[in-house]
Amino acid sequence: MNFHTPPNIYVSNVHLKVSDLEQSLSFYKKMIGLSVLNTSEKLVSLTADGVKPLITIEEVNSAIANSGRKTGLYHLALLLPNRTELANVFYHLIHSGYPLQGASDHLVSEAIYLADPDNNGIELYADRSQDNWKKVDGTIEMATNPLDAQSLLLEKSEVPFTKISPQTIMGHIHLQVSTIKESEDFYRLIGFNAVNRYGLQALFISTGGYHHHIGLNTWHSAGSPSPLENELGMKSFTLMFPNEETRQSALTRLETFGTNFAQQQNDFIVSDPSNNKLIFSIEDK
């Protein structure tokens, strides 16, 4: 399954606002097993493979807690390459005593959930083979069933966990938005297609037939504003485009939608209708 390579459009990095850089850095290194890629006074870029940034954490001044009732991050989701690697980090988290928020079998994947010290949501998951996904008329069947934790833990290796697998990537992002309709219209213009709907309050979208590169929901954010600049949560996330032509086509379509954007070095900064900030980057730059 190559859903996170060209010609697909996918999420590559999530930039988080945190209250204490050292506290967050300790969490992401010790609990998640990421490594430092780049660092500055109040910002650290974290990686699994030593090359590509997955999560960027930035300490904000006069930080205030996120109420959870605004638009922004619901959770980021790190995709591990196989069930054994998921079992390894699962076993590590259990024995570390760090609190987990849930564990689910989604039919297409198995996942565990937790939050960082600032309550930024994190999903760690491994996909099942695409051959086992049930597809009907463009919809991929998913569910939220209890995880068979015992079966998963039997898959763990005997080598003690120290680092997350270097093959770990940003599998998807799940966003809180103010309206589903406007959000769907916006992301469709970028190139995403609906894969699964959950009533009128949640939508999963992707490119290339993945079960979802982006989740959208209004469970706690219907009609809500975006967070304040110093409110903890997501600052931005990066969408990776396969080439300049695909990116420019998306920007042109968004202009007709009335979306403004700004160029920053080789990237473009765009805001969705819920004021979630996206960074448009290209794979081959």
Q: N-to-C SSE series?
A: EHEEEEHEEEEEEHEHEEEEHEEE
CATH architecture type: Roll
Between the first and last Cα atoms, what is the distance in angstroms? 24 Å
Overall number of domains: 1
Pfam families: Glyoxalase (PF00903)
Protein name: VOC family protein
InterPro entries: Glyas_Bleomycin-R_OHBP_Dase, Glyas_Fos-R_dOase_dom, VOC_core
Domain VOC: 10-127
Structure notes:
This protein is α+β, with helices and mostly antiparallel strands. The protein has a single domain (10-282), classed as Roll (2,3-Dihydroxybiphenyl 1,2-Dioxygenase, domain 1). It is built from five helices and 19 strands. A nine-stranded mixed β-sheet has the order 11-6-7-8-5-12-15-14-13. An eight-stranded mixed β-sheet has the order 2-3-4-1-16-19-18-17. Strand 3 and strand 4 (53-59) form a beta hairpin. It starts with 9 loop residues before the first strand and ends with a strand. The mean pLDDT is 96.
